[in-house]
Design a protein that fits this description.
Blueprint: E1 18-22, E2 25-28, E3 33-35
């Protein structure tokens, strides 16, 4: 991920490679599910 696609106000503590998402849930390439709680911050 680059600074062109990620806001500089959001820091990445542990890089995650996402494979897909649905609603507020996203999955990484290992199948682990996360809740996306920052997706609407800039909206």
């Amino acid at each position: 991920m680059s600074s062109e696609t990620i806001s500089q106000s959001i820091s990445i503590v542990h890089p995650v490679s996402l494979s897909h998402g649905k609603n507020a849930e996203v999955w990484d390439t290992n199948g682990k599910r996360y809740i996306d709680f920052v997706g609407g911050i800039g909206v």
